[in-house]
Write a structure and sequence with these properties.
alpha+beta; single chain; four-stranded antiparallel β-sheet; about 25% helix; globular
Length: about 55
């Protein structure tokens, strides 16, 4: 079952991923966006209301 993750970047942009099944997949996906947004600052697993469930990075 897919989880929802929110990534925060150096350029103050946020990306939300809802197609990752594991923390590792979400981390890889988040790092892939660094070329577009700069350094990844935070990665969180969030619920459907975007409340933080768990901090990944």
């Amino acid at each position: 079952m897919s989880r929802v993750y929110k990534a925060e970047y150096a350029d103050n942009e946020i990306e939300v991923f809802s197609f990752c099944d594991t923390d590792e997949e979400a981390l890889k996906e988040a790092y892939d966006y660094e070329e577009e947004h700069g350094t990844l600052f935070n990665l969180f697993e969030v619920n459907e209301d975007y409340d933080i469930i768990k901090t990944i990075v």
